[in-house]
Amino acid sequence: MKEVNNMACTTILVGKKASYDGSTMVARNEDTGSGSFCPKKFLVMKASEQPRQYKSVISKVEIDLPDNPMQYTYTPNAINDEGIWGAYGVNTANVSMTATETLTANERLLAADPLVEYKKAIGEKDSPDYQAEQAGGIGEEDFVTLVLPYIKSAREGVMRLGSLLEEYGTYEMSGIAFQDVNEIWWLETIGGHHWYAKRVPDDHYVIMPNQLGVDNFDLEDAFGKKENHICSKDLHEFMTENHLNPAFDELINPRLIFGTATDSDHLYNTPRAWVLQRFFNQNSNVWDGPNADYTPLSNDIPWSRKPDKKITSEEVKYALSNHFQETPYDAYSKRADLKLKNSYRSIGINRTSTLGLVQLRPDLPAECMALEWVTYGCNVFNTLIPFYTNIDKTPDYLANTSEKISTDNFYWANRIIAALADSNFHLCGSYIERYQIKTVVEARKIIKEYDQLIIENVNEAKKLCEEANEKLAKMLKIETDNLLDKVLFEASNNMSNAFARSDA
Predict the structure, then answer these.
(1) Between β-strands 184-190 and 88-90, what pairing exists: parallel, antiparallel or unpaired?
(2) What is the 3-state composition of the chain as percent helix, strand, coil, each rounded to the nearest 5?
């Protein structure tokens, strides 16, 4: 099976009573696997362009799709050699989806319900030992395309994806978020064909760092009213028959039953949950020292929590840019203990492809309710800008990403800035910070102006949304080009062969 590189991500879910303005917010870094980068672009999939017969590039599975898709935004790979990889987006019913957070699973689970992997044909067709090609299941490449155009609520998203998983299986462990203006649901695949989903409490947030996360599940609700829990039809029998629950009591802790707590998790995954809960719940727990309630190695960090205060979109961006600031593990700190510095995998990592944050605002008309905050590249050095989703076309600056490097698109401009600024972090840090603040301030001004215009002219909403998006993109390009100029100048002056007559 072809190696899947878009695998390492961090997801943040914010319930409507935990956000600053009553919005539901779902955000995810899409990071590529080690040693690879994947250019992305922000597009609209029109209903007429949505495939009716779908075939996965990676797993070769073929699926007939319904005839009534909705239009939706998505953020596919710019180089289409591994399929679409829609990443995240919003459909015309103001329902969003982000797919996926790659998860880990233990050996007992994977033996009981093996992943459905693609198998190449073996031998010649006419030979007695010939084995035909076997299609695999569905995965991150496919999920957005198969689900988002057909759902009118977050709950519907859970049910549609759940049925597809049961029918076709999957070749990887994944976490997927579905969002509407009222609810956020988090679905985790378990093994090849099983799954469960849990509703995020309205006053809670969730941090997901590439590790199966849900730490409690109500089977009675899942097989009853399904108010906050839904799962595959035979989940209880599956767990019992395969002796998957190691707990002494009857409590269902999916993290314990299906997940992992390996040495690799303690290096790569759990520290990310620790540092972000440390950020959002600074005053709720002791996070450092010998008496800490939780450490980077803790296996019992809660899946969801009520934050110390309501969470803003700017804080979500800061969190998804985190490199362990204000800890001994900060990758960029001059004060960090060299023995501890860069001990754990940062959230704001060099190989982030894109960050998408969907904000569904309950106090605005459906025509402008959804904002999709978009950026590309390493979050330490970029900015996150909101765009309306009630559109037929995205701005070229975010849509024209090509394989060839060019500062005419936002993706490559960000990549170049990050590469130059990283080795000159303390020279360029102030430029980056001012850029991030200025662009968000200007973006919020534009959104505020156009929110009011749309309220007053609802019949022209789509035209106004597209007009606003073009203004946002124009502002973004000007400020990004200005930042590149400053960063390039500082990096050039700091080259190893720098010399001036005055140096003599």
Answers:
(1) unpaired
(2) 30, 20, 50
In 329-409, where does DSSP find H-type helix? 396-399
| Residue ranges, the chain, pLDDT below 50 | 1-6
* Token code pair at residue 199: 């509703």
Where would I find the H helices in 169-308? Answer: 219-222, 235-241, 254-258, 263-268, 270-280
Q: Which of 9, 378, 428, 465 is catalytic?
A: 9
* Cα separation values, 407 from 86, 90, 430, 454, 484, Å: 23, 27, 22, 32, 9
Give domain 8-380's CATH number out of 3.40.47.10, 2.60.40.150, 1.25.40.10, 3.60.60.10: 3.60.60.10
Collapse the DSSP code of 24 into the 3-class scheme (helix H, G, I; strand E, B; otherwise coil) and give the result: strand
146 near 63, Cβ under 8 Å?
Answer: yes
pLDDT at residue number 4? 43
Task: Give the pLDDT of residue 292.
Answer: 98
User: Domain extents for the chain?
Assistant: 8-380
Amino acid at position 364, single letter:
L
Beta partners for 62? 55
Q: Are 132 and 77 in contact (CB under 8 A)?
A: no
Active site annotation includes 9 = yes
